[in-house]
Amino acid sequence: MAAMRRLLLIGSTVLLWSAINANIGGAEEPASCASPIAPCTACHSPELARELARCIAEPWPMPASAKEMKSPFSSSDKALKFGKATYDIFCEGCHGNTGDGRGSIALKRSLPSLDISSPVVQAQTDGELFWKISNGKGAMPNWGSLLPEEDRWRLVIFVRTLRRAPAQ
């Protein structure tokens, strides 16, 4: 009986592993900047993530209403602490500790990653940043499918602390 359960477990594991590898490695359709990468794919499919990193150079269209969105949270110690914790888990691997785009995953996998501390990114409204975090594009995952709205707004509050001083 124990041998049968072990065989069944091994068989199930092999089937699951095969399904995961088929979905991660061999995408039959070409990668599109219009469809964001799935969360954690950069770790498991760096080739796909590198291909989608080219999307950084393309314009990122969004609805006009995104610019006008306002955070329901003010910048407080609690919101910043929560936003940093969320950033550390979901963003730091690609964007880096300071937001410079040199996170451990980006460096290890040779993935170009956006410098979110740059004046160009920081000049965007909170609503624009929230919309981009929520919807993703190319190698940027759609975090709206994983993170609650409150977490994404607190993340925007933390991202503002990464503002880099303009070069003199």
What are the key terms here?
168 residues, mainly alpha, Cytochrome Bc1 Complex, Chain D, domain 2, 10 helices, 53% helix, 0% strand, disordered N terminus
**Total number of beta strands:** 0
Report the structural category. Answer: mainly alpha
The arrangement of helices and strands along the chain is HHHHHHHHHH
> pLDDT under 50 segments (min length 5)?
3-28
Your description of this structure?
The relative contact order is 0.17. The chain contains ten helices and no strands. The protein is an all-alpha fold and 168 residues long. Residues 3-28 have low confidence and may be disordered. It is globular, with a radius of gyration of 19 Å. The protein starts with a helix and ends in a 9-residue tail after the last helix. The chain has a domain at 66-168: Cytochrome Bc1 Complex, Chain D, domain 2. It has helices at 2-25, 41-44, 46-53, 64-68, 77-90, 92-95, 104-108, 119-122, 126-135, 149-159. The longest helix has 24 residues, at 2-25.
